[in-house]
Amino acid sequence: MSSRKARNTAHGSVPTDGRTHRPPAKQTPTKRTARAAVTLRSAVVQVSHAWSHEADTGLLSRQTAKLYTRAAEGLLVFGTAHGITLIDEVTKDLVRAFVRAPGRDRHGHIIVTLVETGTHRQRRSGIASFYAHARALGLTQCDPLVDSPPIHRSPRKAGAGLTTDEIKLLQFHSERGMPATRDAALLALLLTGLHSAEIATAAITDLDLEACEITTAGATYTEARTCPLSDWARYVLGLRCACLAEKHPGQLLLVANARSAPDVAQSSVGSGFGDIARRSGLSTTARKVEPRDVTRFVAARILDETGSLSEVARRLGLSSLDSAAGLAGLQWKTPRTGGTA
Question: Do residues 252 and 205 touch, judged by C-beta distance below 8 A?
């Protein structure tokens, strides 16, 4: 009687090098097994790790990763409140309700007014990325946004059109509690030509009060530059520096909290300006005054003083003359008109 190895060799089941080889088991048609249910919480954790990895490798900005993570965590809280446990249980109606749900201000209070469409788009983008990554990780096959239309982007507003007297009114009301409060310093930096993201990172070490100027490293869409300070800006920023050195030694940031995330600090700048605008009576339900309105005023003033559009772009850290012209209210290109053939 031949050995098992000899019999297997005869049937071609053993390689010539002598190593045994077990043939694959016969595949029989079976029903597709049900995929294990994935909780929404577990999916948020895994996708957040994926976003963090993309941020580390430069595929995604850290700020976008944080915003997306916040949107996913918000969906988790919102879904839990509605009895949703699994990622596959999230419906398009739930996502639509979450996108349009009221948010909270920097003090943690619920915002009773309608959420801005920018927040809607931000939440929707975060949830779309969340489900795209979840599908790629094999956590779900669902896409609750598949039939959801994109959120309409409103045309950019013309702005409040601030006057010199209104700027003086903002300065007057920003000085309340100065220099213990940050309002005057915030407005001074805005009137110097810095944008909200740059104001959030502005530090005492960026100031040169003797030379009457401040240097900023720029931001995502603005370039590094040095801007001259007005007499009023130099005065209030000098007081702010002295106050911080006396009462908060070691604090370098002029208006923001060093422990805050960049997007939170930038948002707090907008909220702080909103407080000044409302206190001065300029921002009402009928007329909204925003930091960009001050930037428009600064752009128009620089253009009036220098007559140079490139100087407007330089002082505001802009790489586009079109953007500078738009802020300064200058129609510097003749619109094309139809001609004859």
Answer: yes
